[in-house]
Amino acid sequence: MYDRWSLDVLYTGFEDEKFQKDLEKFDEMIAAYQRMAESLTEGDVRENVKKALLTEEAFTEVANRLFSFCSLSQSVNTSDTDSVSYMGRLMQKMGDVTKAGTIVEKYIAAIEDLDAVIGEDELLVAYSDRLHEIKNSARYTLSEDVEEALARMDVCGGSAWSDLQGFLTSSVEVDFKGEKVTLSAIRNMAYDADATVRKEAYEAELAAYEKIKDSIAYSLNSIKLQDLTVTKMRGHKSPLDRVLYNSRMERATLEALLEAMREYMPNFHSYLRAKAESLGHKNGLPWYDLFAPMGKNTKKYTVEESKAYLMNVFEQFNPKMAEIIDRAYEENWIDFFPRAGKVGGAFCASLEGEKQFRVLTNFDGSFSDVVTLAHELGHGYHDFMIFDNRPLNTSYSMPVAETASTFNENVVTNHAIANATSDDEKLALLEGQLSDVTQIICDIYSRFLFESRVVENRAENFMFADELCNIMLEAQKEAYGDGLDHSVLHPYMWACKGHYYSAGLGFYNFPYAFGGLFARGLYEKYKKEGAGFLEKYNLMLKETPVRSVENVAKICDIDLTKKEFWLMSLHSYDEAIAEFKRLAKK
Fold first, then answer.
1. pTM greater than 0.70 (yes/no)
2. Exposed/middle/buried for 84, CB within 10 Å: 0-12, 13-18, 19+?
3. What band does 95 get if pLDDT is binned at 50, 70 and 90?
């Protein structure tokens, strides 16, 4: 019953008459958008702004359907020529929209008394934050011709390099015990109960990168140079400053987060050393045992059993979440299993016009995979909270993007730990929880360090694969400290993580730490305040597309610029680390 997702709510295929008609409509909407932009010098200012917003809403509805279908089709089959071809055509056409969009933004930015224009008009009040953001962002907007050129060049620049990295990592053949397996499959073996399998899979994985490392290095170098170039053209001080601005996040918040992480990090190092000792390692944990299971929680879940488990947890906690989970399974919104040509990892994609979402996972039946499902379904829950917003008020920034997903992880994992029936099961669950949080603290910090140094170096130098590997190794040593064996790390983590490969979305690493600790802090408040907290929580999620991260947090009485909040979240793991050490010694 459950296997692959269905995209029929969008189109049944590229030959679907509805798809072809939407392609035609896409061109018509682009032309209408251009005509609207050219006519803004005429007529009443308020009516012009309303016309611009309504035209963009109509265009966005069609564009979202087409782009979603192409992107989702390509993600489960990176060799699909139709999805690649149509995606390229659509992105090329977006250059026409970029120029018109820049004209609209400059028109809005030039309005002297924007609040007077907004007045009490229902449409403009709904978009008040968006309009003020456009006005404030004018200093970073280039001329119409330059904006159009950048959008067109990205198709054969940053986006093409990104596609190359995705294609190489999804199609490379890994040699393992006389067979050819996918990179996703070999990486899943890091969780295998057999120590020999974990070590041999790690060695096979590293060997596979040798086949593709140079091409991916060119991808990364090209993407980061494009990012640096565009950042300088727009007038931002650095790519990180550009990311923070686009994330509606203050640097004080990032600094408070990083300072708290560095202060608490030795506690995660001690967890890693305890795990290493229990597995017989003397010099810290070797990378291939980073995800080694401990205790006994070897139960494998079928897809049906994963649904039953999640439904049981969330029916008690949040019936609305349970209802959404039921729909996701029953209406085939999830693509579960790894296969050749399918991208690795997991993600959730919103289908805003249809008020649905789609989840991609590489499910192998472990409890960790059940938690991954809860995580991605949390993204879907976040989407449902904002579906009633106006169509242009549905995009939330990177930092808050991981909030609902990681909150779900806390709910599921803590439920499992509280209901463990033996020390062995409890140890296994604690290990899973601490392994995950160590990833969003230590590993994410290593990725932040890596990207910071790559961006700094790329301003003057091209970095070949071996140099990128050295930068990654140094970042891992700094972030993991004495918790890992420094002679057995993972030099190719830069090659397999798609988060580095977006010219328009740099530093997609610290948002995971932000989301993880923000969600953990929210969960701690939920435990204190009870079910009544969910009303504030839902309102906070709904407001994420239109408020800064700091103002969103204030809805739940949190000050993100203070280190104390982040340390409170981190110290909530004290008991789990202590209990893990006790059980590991037994």
1. yes
2. middle
3. confident
